[in-house]
Amino acid sequence: xxxxxxxxxxxxxxxxxxxxxxxxxxxxxxxxxxLLAVGGVSxxxxxxxxxxxxxxxxxxxxxxxxxxxxxxxxxxxxxxxxFVEKLGWTQTSIRRYxxxxxIIPNSKVSKQTVINLSRxxxxxxxxxxxxxxxxxxxxxxxxxxIKETLSTMPNxxxxxxxxxxxxxxxxxxxxxxxxxxDMKFYLTSRxxxxxxxxxxxxxxxxxxxxxxxxxGFAMPTAVQIxxxxxS
Length: 231
What we know:
It is built from 7 helices and 9 strands. The chain is α+β, with helices and mostly antiparallel strands. The strands form 2 sheets. Strands 4-3-2-1-5 form a 5-stranded antiparallel beta sheet. Strands 6, 7, 8 and 9 form a 4-stranded antiparallel beta sheet that branches. A hairpin with a 4-residue loop joins strand 8 (about 165-170) and strand 9 (about 175-185). The N and C termini lie far apart (about 75 Å).
C-alpha cells in the first residue's frame, strides 16, 4: 500500500503541474507550447538547479519500488546502522542505537550496500578459542565436547540441513593453541536481540565444556624490557 500511495502522489503532482501550466497559458492568452518555448532558457536554468533534488526524488521512488526496507525495519546502510524511521521522497531517516537520528540523502542510500537485519532468517556464529599449550593432550576431547554441546542448541543449523558445524584445532600461535568455531543459527524474531542471546548461550556452553575437560583459556603474553636492563 505504501508503494502505491507514493506512486499515486507522484502522478497527482505531475498532473497538478501540467494543469497549472495550462491555466497559466490561458490567463496569458498564449498556447501551452508557446509558453514552454518562451520559458525555454529559464527552463534550462531551472532544470539544472533542480537536477539534484529531482535525482533525490527519483531515487526515493526507486527505493520504494525495490522494497529494500520499510519504516520500522532494522537496517545497515553503509556505515550507518539502526531503525528506519521515515522513507521520504528525498531522504531517509535512520534512528541509531544511541537514539540519535541521522538523515541520509536517497541518492547516497542508492549507492550504499543495504543489509536489512529485520529480514535475516539465519545468522553466523564464529569465534576463536585460545587454549593453553599444557592442554595439548586434551584438544581432541575438547573439540568433540564443544561440537556436541553446540549441536544441541535449539536454533542450531546442523550439517544435515545444509550448513557446516565446524569445531577444529586450526593452528599454533606463539602463546596458545587455537580452536576455530563456525556455525549457523536460525532466527525466529526481528533485529539483533535474538542473535546476541544465541551468541551468549554459545559462549556459555563453550566455557562449560572447556572447564569440564579440565582445560583452560590462554592469557595473552607480553614481554616488558626495563630501561637499563639487557636480556
